[in-house]
Design a protein that fits this description.
Elements (H helix, E strand, L loop, with lengths): L1 H18 L5 E2 L3 E5 L2 H18 L7 E4 H7 L9 E5 L4 E2 L1 H14 L10 E6 L5 E5 L2 E5 L14 H13 L30 E9 L3 H8 L12 H13 L20 E2 L2 E7 L3 E6 L5 E11 L6 E11 L1 H29 L1
Helix pairs in contact: 1-4
C-alpha cells in the first residue's frame, strides 16, 4: 500500500539490524500498459478511485497515449493503446524480503518447522493459545487472531449472499468468464490480415444520444434476450448444445453492464469502446470464425446518430460457405429487428 511504501525505510532498517539482511525498496515509478482502449479506460477509473481514497495525500498518475508511450518505449508494437504511469510504484526483491523475515524470526528465538501440519489451535486458560503441530505442543501468550483465516461461512449464508448479488446486478465474476479455456488467445477480428469474406449489416438513424444507445446495446443477451427474434437466437443456442457447444446457458455476468472478455450467451466481448463500439466474438460450434459488431456513429449532417449491426464470417472450407448461405435469408429479419429493438429501448 501507499502507507507501507512510506514506512518501508524504518521497517527495512529494523529488519537488517535484527537479522542482518538488507531489503532495499526502490520507488522508480511504474507503467501499466493496455492493449485495448477499454482496458486503458478501466485502468484510469481504478487509479481515479485510488486518488479519491488518498484524499489530501494525493495520488498522481499520467495517462499516455500510444504516441507518448512510444517516446518512452520505442520498442512497443502498434497494437498497444497506451499506458498509465504512476510515480508512486516501487519494488522490493521478494526473495530478499523472505530471507530477511526468516533471519529476523530466527534471531528473535523462533523455530521454523517446514511442512508441520497444524492439528489444533485452542484457547489457553489465562490467555494465549495452545497449538498442536508436527507432533508437538507449543504455547503462545500472544493473540493469533490476525494470523488465522476468517471462519468459513455456512452454505446457507454463502448462497444468500451470492443470490442477493445476482438480484442486485453486482456480480464481479462469473463462472463463464473462464470457459472455454484460453479464450483470450482466440484470433481477434482486428488481427486478421484482411476482412472476413462474408459480411451482413443493417442500420438505423435516430435522434437518441450515443450514451443511451450504447447502454441499450450493452443489455443484449442473457435474461434481456435478443428483442423480438429472441426465439431464433435461443433455437440457435439449442442447436449449438446438440453439437456440444456452450449454447445460451452461460447468460451474462451482469444484466446492464459489460466489460472486456464478458460472456454473452454464446458470444464473448472482444472490444468495448464506450458509446461507440461493441464487438462480440462467437464461441459456438461453427465451420468458421464469426463476429457480431455494433457501432454508434454520428451522422455527418448533424442529424443524430447511426446505429449499425454488422455480422462478419470467415468460412472454413465448403461447410463454412454452405452455413453462411443457409442463414443469409434470415439476416435481414434478425438484424433489422435487433437495431429497431435496441433503438426503441434506448
Amino acid at each position: 500500500s501507499r502507507h507501507a511504501s512510506e514506512v518501508w525505510a524504518d521497517f527495512a532498517a529494523e529488519l537488517e539490524a535484527t537479522g542482518g539482511v538488507p531489503v532495499p525498496y526502490a520507488r522508480t515509478g511504474g507503467l501499466l500498459i493496455a492493449l485495448e482502449e477499454a482496458e486503458l479506460a478501466a485502468n484510469i477509473v481504478t487509479l481515479e478511485g485510488l486518488r479519491r481514497e488518498a484524499g489530501t495525500n494525493g495520488y498522481d498518475f499520467d495517462v499516455l497515449d500510444h504516441a507518448a508511450l512510444a517516446r518512452r518505449l520505442p520498442q512497443i508494437g502498434p497494437d498497444v493503446a497506451g499506458a498509465t504511469y504512476c510515480p508512486h510504484d516501487g519494488h522490493a526483491n521478494p526473495l530478499k524480503l523472505l530471507h530477511g523475515l526468516h533471519a529476523g524470526f530466527r534471531a528473535r528465538g523462533g523455530t521454523y518447522r517446514a511442512g508441520a501440519p497444524v492439528a489444533d489451535i485452542a484457547a489457553r486458560t489465562g490467555g494465549g493459545f495452545r497449538i498442536q503441530a508436527g507432533g508437538e505442543t507449543v504455547e503462545s501468550s500472544r493473540e493469533l487472531e490476525q494470523l488465522l483465516p476468517a471462519p468459513p461461512q455456512g452454505c446457507k449464508e454463502a448462497l444468500v449472499r451470492a443470490m442477493s448479488r445476482e438480484e442486485q446486478d453486482r456480480v464481479a465474476t462469473h463462472w463463464s468468464d473462464a470457459y472455454p479455456p484460453a479464450h483470450e488467445l482466440a484470433m481477434k477480428l482486428d488481427e486478421l490480415p484482411a476482412a472476413p469474406r462474408f459480411r451482413a449489416s443493417d442500420f438505423r438513424t435516430t435522434p437518441k444520444s450515443a450514451p443511451a444507445l450504447f447502454a441499450s446495446v450493452c443489455r443484449i443477451g442473457g435474461r434481456e434476450g435478443w428483442c423480438n427474434t429472441n426465439w431464433m437466437w435461443r433455437m440457435r443456442g439449442a442447436i449449438d448444445r446438440l453439437f456440444l457447444g456452450v449454447g445460451t446457458a452461460r447468460g451474462r455476468r451482469c444484466e446492464r453492464t459489460l466489460q472486456l472478455h464478458d460472456a454473452v450467451d454464446f458470444w464473448r466481448v472482444e472490444r468495448l469502446e464506450k458509446d461507440a463500439r461493441l464487438l462480440l466474438r462467437a464461441e459456438m460450434k461453427l465451420p468458421g470464425k464469426a463476429w457480431l459488431e455494433f457501432r454508434i456513429e454520428p451522422e455527418p449532417a448533424g442529424g443524430g446518430n447511426r446505429l449499425s449491426v454488422i455480422a462478419w464470417f470467415a468460412p472454413h472450407g465448403w461447410a463454412g460457405w454452405l452455413y453462411w448461405w443457409f442463414f443469409v435469408p434470415f439476416h435481414w429479419l434478425i438484424f433489422n429487428d435487433l437495431v429497431r429493438g435496441i433503438e426503441k429501448r434506448a
